[in-house]
Amino acid sequence: MTSDAPVDARPPGGKTFFGHPRALSTLFLTEMWERFSFYGMRAILVLYLTAAVADDGLGIRESTANAVYGTYNAMVYLMALPGGWVADRLLGARRSVLWGGVVIAAGHYVMAIPVRWSVFAGMTLIVLGTGLLKPNISTMVGDLYDRDSPRRDAGFSIFYMGINLGAFIAPLITGFLGEKINWHLGFGAAAIGMTFGVLQYVLGRRNLGEAGARPADPLLGADRRRALTRIAVVTLAVLVVLAVLALFGLFTVNTVVNLLTIVTVLVTIAYFARILTDREISGTERSRMKAYLWLFVFAAAFWLIYDQAGSVLNIFAADKTDRDVLGFTFPASWLQSVNPILIIIGAPLAAWLWLRLGHRVSTPMKFAVGLVLNGLSFVLMAAAAQAAVGGDLVSPWWLVAVYAIQVAGELALSPVGLSATTKLAPMKYASQMMGLWFLATAVGDAIGGQVARLAETWPEPTYFLTFGLASVALGLGAVMFARHIRQLMAGIH
Q: Are 191 and 37 in contact (CB under 8 A)?
C-alpha cells in the first residue's frame, strides 16, 4: 500500500459498501459517471460527424469520421501514460482524479455549444482529463486494500461493474436526446453526467482516508522545476507545430489524425525498445517481455476490430437496420448499450470458466480464442452487410449477435491481458506496465481508425469479410506460436 491507513478499515459507524470500505462507493460512482459521459458521447460522435449540415451535423465524410473516432479513442488511452506520471510525481492520484473530472466535464460542456469547432475543442479537453482520471482512479481502488487482501479482487470486480453500468445507461439517454432532439443536447447530457461524478467525488472525499492523498514518488526542489520546464517546452513545441501547419494551410482534420496515429505507433516502439535494451533487467525478464510483445500485437489487432462498434458498425445501424418497434424508430446509438450489458452478464461466467480450466489453457491460447471470435464477428457482419445490399433494411438482431460474439472474445482476452501484464512485468517497470497495456488499445484504435476509412470505399461485405478472416488467421497463428510464447514466458502461465 502507498498509505499508512488501516487495511480495509471501516469508517466510523461501521458503514460499508457491500462489505467493502465506504470509499469504494465514492470511486465506484465517480467511475460510473465518467464512463457515462465517455460512452454517452462516443455513442453519438460518428453519427453527429457524418450527419448532414441540414440535420445539424458536420457533414464530414464517413471515412474521415471513422478516422477521427479511432484517433480520439487512441488518444484517451495514450494519455494514461503521462496522466499516471503526473499523479506519481506531481499531484497524487486524488487530485489528479479531481482535476481530470473537472477537465472532462469542461470538454463535454464545450461540445454542447452549437458551433462547428466545439466538437474538436471538447474532445481535446476530454482526452487530457481522461488521461488524468482513468489510470489513477484504479490506483486509488487498490490503495483501499492490502496487497494480499482476499477482498481486493472482489473490490475491483464491483468497481468494474460501475464501468459497465455507466456504459450501458449512457447511450440510452444521450442517444435519444442526440438523435431525436438535438446533437448538442446529447453532448450536454454527457456533461451533466460528469458533473454528477465530480460533485459526488468531492462530497465523498472524507471517505477516502489517505488513499491517493500524496504522490507516490514526488519530485522536489530542482527536479520538480526541471520537470515543469520540460512540460512547458513540450507544450510550446506542440503549439508551434500546430501554428506552422495552420500557417501553410495544413492544419486539417486529416493531417492531425494522421500525425497522432504516427505518434502513437512511435511512442509504442520507443517504449518497448527502452525496456528490451535496458541492461538492468535480467535475461528471464527480457524473455518475458519478448513474450509480452507477442501478446501486445494480438491485443492491438483485437481492439482494431472491436472498437469499430462505435464507428463503422454504428453507421451501419443508423443506415441499414430496421429499428422500428411498434411505430417507434429507436435511435441507432441504443445498440451501443448491448456490449456493456453482455459484459455484465458474461464476466462472472468467464471468471468461473477460467477458474475451472486453470492452467490447462495458456494465456496465448486465450488470446487466440479472443482473436478468432473477434474475426468471426466480422464474418457474421459480412453476411449482414450482404443482406443489406440493394437497400433492404436488416434486423438489428444481426448486430446484437455480432456484439455477443465480440464480448465473448473480449472476456477471453482483456481480463487475461491485464493479469498477464502484471505477471510478465520486469521488476523495474512494474508500475509502468499498466500504461503499456493501455497502449495496446491506443495502437489498435489509431490504426483501426485508418483501416476504417476503407469502409466507405470498399463494398461492405468485402470489408467485413477481409478483416474478419484476417483476425481469424491471426488467431490461428497465435495457436501455432503458443508453445514458443509459453517458453518465452519462462514459467508464467
A: yes
Query: The domain spanning residue 380 has which CATH number?
Result: 1.20.1250.20
Same domain as 208, residue 264? no
Strand pairing of 16-17 and 328-329? unpaired
Taking the C-alpha atoms of residue 371 and residue 190, their distance in angstroms, rounded to an integer, is 32
pLDDT single digits (tens) 328-341: 999 999 999 999 99
422 has pLDDT over 70? yes
Model confidence over 367-407: pLDDT tens digits? Answer: 999 999 999 999 999 999 999 998 899 999 999 999 999 99
Residues in the chain: 493
Please check whether residues 112 and 172 belong to one and the same domain. yes
Indicate whether 260 belongs to any domain.
yes
| Number of folded domains that form the chain | 2
Rounded-to-integer distance, Cα 341 and Cα 94, Å:
29
Q: Is there a single domain that holds both residue 32 and residue 135? A: yes
Alpha helices in 307-389, H assignment, sequence order: 312-320, 338-357, 363-387
Is residue 294 located within the same domain as residue 179? Answer: no
CA 26 to chain centre: 21
The per-residue pLDDT for range 120-153, each reduced to its tens digit, is: 999 999 999 999 998 888 778 777 777 556 666 6
Q: How far apart are CA 49 and CA 56, in angstroms?
A: 10
> Is 188 among the domain residues?
yes
Q: Residue 7 has what pLDDT?
A: 43
Residues 161 and 280 in one domain: no
277 and 141 within one domain:
no
Measure the CA angle with vertex 203, ends 200 and 208; round to 5°: 100
